[in-house]
Specification:
The complex is a heterodimer of chains A (211) and B (230). With 211 residues, chain A is an alpha+beta fold. Chain A has helices spanning 14-31, 79-83, 112-128, 140-148, 175-185, 189-200, and strands at residues 2-6, 54-59, 65-73, 98-106, 133-139, 154-159, 166-171. Chain B is of the alpha+beta class and 230 residues long. Helices cover 53% and strands 13% of the residues of chain B. The two termini of chain B are 28 Å apart. The chains are: A alpha+beta (211), B alpha+beta (230).
């Protein structure tokens, strides 16, 4: 199932959280070779995990981590502003209606379906919170995954070449993209809304179409 | 209304505006509440002075489920979603009701730069269905207004360098410049080879940084500050 969890509620989910930080180490340190800091017990964390971000996590039937991503508001401290200014012309996007999405991570066992489920959870979050976009940094391999599931971001800036190319992009979901995601995710919108309500309560989707 | 907010230059003006905004949103109360990590608090709003005094005296900051539920978070919260089950929380709620706070509330947590935190709240006395439709209709505006209040409060901070927040990216400058030249949004998007949907982010981001009430004001402010030249 999809879990929407702030960092301060991870303590009650230590098995899931541990698996998430370990999968992050595997993806970002081992597979992608990023210079991230990995603890002695094999967990990858950065200073933004300490700002009480919101994690959206695909929890596998065995209770462990299938994939996840991390959100912070662009009006406060966030990673793109502090580390990827060169990708946004030196002045970052700031808006109450744009949240930053970072550390999109898939466990080694994840399928394209997992990625689609996470992206669909992102769409539900965006709609439920009345957001217009997510802002995020991604690399070339991730770009391919996003394209496969039909949720490519609009690229604002890139640096580097080939596999090590890093880009900054804005995501939003057209109704068509969402329909594609639903198909790839192989679950119903009603179920996703149910998971969303478990975390945020009340109605899932106040439609926001104001400019 | 938002234009007056844009012009506000001190806390008493924000106080007067909070009263007008309360009437605009047709709610019993509207409150902006700055809470630092060390427990320093200040704000403005329409709660009765007696209630504000009691809140401070009894150190309700430690009890208030709204503060506990919103602190360190960043999604707006309907008070019904919070945990009011504890003994202290129940006593606090009874006291709040007695002082006219209302049985309904909606709070927008706001994260500013360098860990700054504030809450923007509207509260009211009505049934659940009325409240739900009221909030759904005003949600976006409430988030916007809450962030205005916070930007103003940040501007009033003595140590703050105001210009630092105003840096517009070249794309934002482009967007503002073309708008100032009278281009339509579609024309600006075409000229910049981006979608209108993405253009909206640049305009919204520029508007936010300039503390402007709307796009027209953002353009005017950008011109006034010499950020764009037409």
């Amino acid at each position: 199932m999809i879990r929407f969890l702030y960092a301060d509620s991870l303590s009650t989910q230590s098995r899931l959280a541990g698996a998430m930080f370990q999968d992050r180490a595997k993806q970002f340190s081992e597979r992608l070779g990023w210079e991230v800091s990995v603890s002695a017990d094999g967990e990858e964390r950065d200073p933004y995990d300490a700002l009480n971000p919101l994690y959206v996590i695909w929890q596998r039937p065995d209770g462990l981590h299938g994939g996840s991503m991390r959100f912070l508001p662009t009006t406060g401290r966030c990673m793109t502003h502090e580390h990827f200014q060169h990708l946004s012309d030196g002045a970052p996007v700031q808006s109450p209606f744009v949240w930053e999405c970072t550390r999109f991570c898939l466990s080694a066992s994840a399928s394209p379906r997992t990625a689609a489920r996470l992206m669909l959870a992102g769409a539900t979050l965006m709609e439920g919170q009345g957001l217009t976009h997510f802002l995020g940094v991604f690399d070339a391999p991730m770009e391919r995954i996003y394209r496969q599931i039909g949720a490519s971001p609009e690229v604002l800036g890139s640096a580097g070449q080939g596999r090590s190319k890093t880009s900054l992009g804005l995501w939003s979901y057209s109704p068509r993209a969402k329909a594609r995601l639903l198909k790839k995710a192989q679950l119903s919108e009603a179920l996703m809304h149910h998971w969303y309500r478990r975390a945020f309560g009340a109605k899932a989707a106040p439609k926001s179409n104001a400019a | 209304m938002l234009e007056a907010l844009e012009q506000a230059s001190d806390l008493p003006q924000l106080q007067a505006l909070s009263e007008r905004l309360r009437d605009y949103f047709q709610v019993d109360h509207l409150v902006y509440h700055w809470v630092s990590g060390t427990g320093t608090q200040y704000g403005c709003g329409t709660y009765s002075p007696v209630w504000v005094q009691l809140y401070i005296e009894r150190d309700y900051l430690r009890t208030d489920p709204v503060v506990a539920g919103c602190f360190q978070r960043f999604h707006p919260v309907d008070w019904k979603m919070l945990d009011w089950s504890g003994k202290a929380a129940k006593a606090f709620q009874a006291e709040a009701l007695a002082h006219g706070v209302g049985n309904q509330g909606f709070s927008v947590p706001i994260r500013g730069p360098s860990g700054q935190f504030a809450l923007f709240t509207v509260s009211h006395h009505c049934d659940d269905a009325t409240w739900a439709s009221k909030i759904e209709a005003a949600r976006r505006e409430l988030i916007l207004v809450g962030h205005y209040f916070n930007q103003k409060a940040l501007e009033f901070e003595p140590d703050r360098a105001p210009e630092a927040a105003r840096a517009l990216s070249p794309r934002e400058v482009d967007a503002m410049t073309f708008l100032a030249m009278g281009y339509s949004r579609a024309q600006v998007a075409n000229t910049l080879s981006i979608s209108e949907h993405t253009l909206r982010v640049y305009i919204e981001s520029a508007r936010f940084k300039l503390g402007a009430a709307n796009t027209t004001h953002a353009v005017a402010r950008a011109l006034q500050h010499g950020l764009i030249i037409v």
